[in-house]
Amino acid sequence: MQKGKYVRSDIAAECMPEGDGAAEGVVYTVAERGRIRTERLRIENEIGERSLGKPRGSYVTVAFPPIRLCSDDECAALKKVIAGEIRRFSAAMTKGQGKSVLIVGLGNRAITSDAVGPKVSDSITVTRHLNELDRRLLGGSSPWSVAAIAPGVLGQTGIETGELVKQTAEAVRPSLIVAVDALASRSVERLAQTVQLSDTGIAPGSGIGNRRCPLTKEALGIPVLAVGAPTIIDSSTMIFEALEKAGIESVSEALSAILDNGRSFFVTPKENDVIVNDLSELIASAINAAFTE
Fold it and tell me: Can you give 146-159 as a three-state secondary structure string?
């Protein structure tokens, strides 16, 4: 079976080879704190890029139990872990000279599984206008000037998301862009139970196979921190994974046709409205803690 053809994932840690977890050109470590698991992965060269099918850069994946099943202490710890990673990435990407950040909530708020970005944007504590009016209004507590937008998708606006973000960035002139988006996973267990951060930027719509204008430092001239959470899984990926677990290594032409057709369908949990709200609240609170607390 052609694994690369049927298995789709935006999560870099899921692309690590099975077995001892080693991949040439890749540095990978894991740390656990209670039920929170943090995977750090750095793709160092072209060999690593080919091995994982991801661009060179650093990736951090924070995995956790269903948010509704976390205690108050676990939720607080989870928020602290993600906020800490955002601060670490931000300092490294701006070389410690960060003064302003633009939060971009990617996705279509009319589609629940794609609404993580816009919902996060809605909950961001924006301070740019207050900083410009009078910094004393914030009591001098916030080192960052924060702005946020939810530019929608091409089908809603007729304008490439990348174009809207670029024009906004030219007006706001942020030190850093944080792009928040829904992702696709290869594992049902990761849905709504993972947050990935990466300094490589993001291509809106990539999770469902739509390649739009990328939001990257190369394209925008500004460092882009990608923050995402998986809310969907490709149906052909689900079938393929089940076949693998069943020990089936070859498939008939008829089954191949089903797998090919399944690449156009996506599966999401039945309680998607609840978990997307929980995820959005978690990510927004972590971003607020990172930049305004």
Answer: EEEECCCCHHHHCC
Average pLDDT, the chain: 87
| Whole-angstrom distance, CA of residue 149 vs CA of residue 157 | 14
- Cβ neighbours of residue 71 under 8 Å, at least 6 residues apart? none
Q: Rounded CA gap, 182 and 229, in Å?
A: 5
- Is the distance from CB of 108 to CB of 161 less than 8 angstroms? no
Residue 177, CB-side half-sphere exposure with 13 Å CA sphere: 33
CA distance 171 to 166: 9
- Burial class of residue 267 in the structure, from the number of CB atoms within 10 Å of its CB (0-12 exposed, 13-18 middle, 19+ buried): middle
Q: Which amino acid is at 206?
A: S
Q: Beta 224-234 vs 176-185: how paired, if at all?
A: parallel
* pLDDT tens string 224-235: 999 999 999 988
Q: What is the spatial distance between Cα 206 and Cα 9, in angstroms, rounded to a whole number?
A: 10
**pLDDT tens digits, one per residue of 204-217:** 655 455 556 789 99
Residue with tokens 């998986």: 230
CB 116 within 8 A of CB 182: yes
pLDDT digits (tens, 9 = 90+) for 84-119: 999 999 999 999 887 899 999 999 999 999 999 999
> Would you state the structure tokens that stand for residue 16, as one six-digit string?
């690590």
Helix ranges (H only) for the chain are 3-6, 46-52, 72-93, 116-122, 128-133, 154-157, 161-172, 217-220, 235-245, 253-262, 272-292
**pTM, full prediction:** 0.89
Tokens of 108: 């279509």
DSSP letter assigned to residue 206? G
